[in-house]
Amino acid sequence: MTTNQKAGGSSPSRYTIKILVIIDDYKDFVIFSKGGYHILFYVGAEIAQAPLYIISGFVILGIHALILFLAAKLFKLDLFTCGVASLANVGGVASAPILAAAYSEALIPIGVLMALMGYVIGTGGGLLVGKILSMI
Known about the structure:
Blueprint: E1 2-6, E2 16-23, E3 28-34, E4 37-42, H1 50-75, H2 79-90, H3 96-103, H4 108-135
Antiparallel strand pairs: 1-2, 2-3, 3-4
């Protein structure tokens, strides 16, 4: 099955990306071709496990949202604190200051500190979980 997709521009032959999917009994390959360069991707049995990983990701985010909601109710936190803390845990240092800046430029250092605390707590928590799982 071959599909042509145009990535924009004035010359269709120059900006055409051909995607060729070869479906065989044992092998699934995706070939991306542009301007004489070809990239071959193997998409094998691992793609069958993708729904499991997607569901696992949603479960983790659901647990994150539940804990964040319970902490917000327990400690009477405002929306700024909950939003920046959540994004600091999920997105890290790159995204938490941006959300903090949406509220006020003076809160950018708070976003950085929350993200750094997320790294510290997450690293310690990950090491603890690894230690517990190695004992099982």
